[in-house]
Write a structure and sequence with these properties.
By secondary structure, the protein is α+β, with helices and mostly antiparallel strands. The chain contains 20 helices and 11 strands. About 55% of the residues lie in helices and about 10% in strands. The N and C termini lie far apart (about 50 Å). This is Acyl-CoA dehydrogenase.
């Protein structure tokens, strides 16, 4: 499929919307100047356009397969991985001393998103390795770092994470995998893990699994879980992949989409592993990997949505149907409405995502706890709104195609099938929303109010040039503030949870209005000002209904008995 990485969009957002300049102004990221940033985005765009995009359809039509215990990748994926690895894209934000580039997470986020638009199935592989690199960097011993990180960064080896078990999905604490000390500093890890993205491949010489398991003295629940690094092949005295470990791929899942990405059922039978982090501290170590992975998954949603939008726009520009000025469907009012909605929401989701990435970088560069709190607050919003937007845009893309969207040969349906899982993995979007209204509100709503103060201050600045749009954003933010105060006041957590999803979406809607208003101010009379007017006039008003829903409490969700839910009266 054809794809064009939206490099100019990233450059505009970094320069005018999310204040990336403050990241480049820090000592830690001083080398990530605007010129360097532009060069990186341009080169990554070429990789996406020329190498990865042609693999999008191939992975869907010729999926991975398990043959005699060996995972066979889709045609061209090995070459695609090699190009990603040789370009240094896996280790963009990894430490220089281990072979990485030590670039800001903001740039890694941009590159990962454009890779997702080009070929989401393949992009999942480097994303898994990046998460493992980060977890090892923060929690592993120096010996493990020195052995594994350079090979993961170079792409010689690949990484995975193993959390889920048949009986332990979102409730990770219910896992049953065990780890027994071997007496020599290693552990024998046993158990079965499911839903392991890129659990194996045929183009890396070793696969390194991060596995959650319980030591003999581990208490029930999440507090008794430890994290282990369990390689497919045990490193020899030279640090190269040696003899096979006691683990295997049992089967590959037959999925709705992402056919080019193997999702494995993994079996560990006393496999040799090494402890990462402290005993019983596995969740802390794993969350280091998961938090940025959640931002990455939000980017997957935006990227896949970008691919779906480009695909739909191309079709609309060519498809002749009915009477219109151009003779094609792009001039029909409803088609134009759909395309404008797709483009406007992608801008909003991308801005939220990059704002979160900037906060992560500023925390890393300054150590300021306020930046850390900001990043933590924005992460569930970036993940949820990014993936919801990707799914909605891909769904709308099918609609733009009309009947042809339901025909697999056009490729429109693949974007929807591939992106649908992003709202589920790395913490379902419902869990993200619950996290936002519970853990992220433990400060009494302080960070939420900081963000709302910024939104209203910017709206005041915009009144001279865009009075109507500024007023709409300001009023929406006031409504959000009132809902936040109501939410924080609720002692019954279930009342918060019942409205968590609409509250998160309303917050994202208001943030989207804020970023669109910023774009209008930076692009007077230009296309981004016009797009901002569309968003603020037509999409931002959704916040009112969402906030009304968010403040109704839990009782209404339980008014039907289980028998009545089943239609039995």
């Amino acid at each position: 499929m054809s794809f064009r990485a939206p490099v100019p969009e990233y450059e505009f957002l970094l320069k005018h919307i999310v204040d990336y300049g403050q990241v480049a102004a820090t000592d830690r990221f001083a080398e990530a100047s605007s010129d360097v940033t532009s060069a990186i985005l341009t080169e990554a765009g070429k990789l996406c356009d020329e190498v990865m995009a042609p693999l999008q359809r191939v992975g869907d039509l010729q999926p991975t397969a398990l043959e005699n215990g060996v995972v066979r990748s889709s045609p061209g994926f090995a070459e695609g991985w090699k190009a990603i690895a040789e370009g240094g894209w896996i280790g963009m934000s990894a430490p220089e001393e281990q072979g990485g580039m030590a670039l800001p997470m903001t740039l890694t986020t941009c590159v990962n998103e454009m890779m997702s638009g080009a070929c989401l199935s393949l992009q999942l592989a480097p994303l898994m390795s990046q998460g493992q690199i980060e977890a090892l960097d923060h929690h592993a011993s120096d010996a493990l770092k020195d052995l594994y990180m350079p090979k993961l960064i170079s792409g010689e080896w690949a990484g995975t994470m193993n959390l889920t078990e048949p009986q332990a999905g979102s409730d990770v604490g219910a896992l049953s995998s065990k780890a027994e000390p071997n007496g020599d500093g290693t552990y024998a890890v046993s158990g079965q893990k499911i839903f392991i993205s890129w659990g194996d491949n045929d183009f890396c010489s070793n696969i390194c699994h991060l596995v959650l398991a319980r030591l003999p003295d581990g208490v029930p629940g999440t507090k008794g879980i430890s994290l282990f690094l369990v390689p497919k092949f045990l490193p020899d005295e030279n640090g190269d992949a040696g003899v096979a470990n006691d683990l295997k791929v049992v089967s590959l899942e037959h999925k709705m989409g992402l056919h080019g990405s193997p999702t494995c059922v993994m079996q560990y039978d006393g496999a040799t592993g090494w402890l990462v982090g402290n005993e019983h501290g596995g969740m802390a170590a794993m969350f280091t990997m998961m938090n940025n992975a959640r931002l990455g998954v939000g980017g997957q949603g935006v990227g896949a949505g970008e691919g779906a939008y480009q695909h739909a726009l191309e079709y609309a520009l060519e498809r002749k149907q009915g009477r219109s000025e151009s003779g094609t469907i792009v001039d029909h009012a409803d088609v134009r409405r759909m395309l404008m909605t797709m483009k406007a929401d992608l801008f909003a989701a991308r801005a939220i995502m990059l704002s979160c990435a900037v906060a992560i970088d500023m925390q890393a560069a300054t150590g300021d706890a306020t930046w850390a709190a900001r990043a933590a607050f924005l992460t569930p919003i970036a993940k949820t709104f990014g993936t919801d937007t990707g799914i909605a845009v891909a769904d709308t893309g099918v609609q733009v195609h009309g009947g042809m969207g339901f025909i697999e040969e056009t490729g429109a349906a693949q974007f929807f099938r591939d992106v649908r899982v992003t709202a589920i993995y790395e913490g379902t979007n419902g869990i993200q929303a619950m996290d936002l209204v519970a853990r992220k509100m433990m400060d009494g709503g302080e960070m939420a109010n900081r963000l709302m103060d910024e939104i209203e201050e910017q709206a005041e600045c915009a009144r001279s040039t865009h009075p109507n749009m500024a007023e709409s954003v300001w009023q929406a933010c006031e409504s959000l503030r009132e809902a936040t105060e109501w939410l924080v006041a609720q002692g019954n957590m279930n009342d918060r949870f019942a409205g968590a999803v609409p509250y998160l979406r309303a917050f994202a809607r208001v943030l989207g209005g804020h970023f669109h208003l910023s774009a209008a101010m930076a692009d007077l009379g230009g296309p981004r000002e016009k797009l901002a007017r569309f968003y603020i006039t037509r999409l931002l008003p959704e916040h009112a209904g969402l906030l009304a829903h968010a403040q109704t409490g839990a009782d209404g969700a339980y008014v039907l008995t289980l028998e009545e839910l089943a239609g039995q009266s």
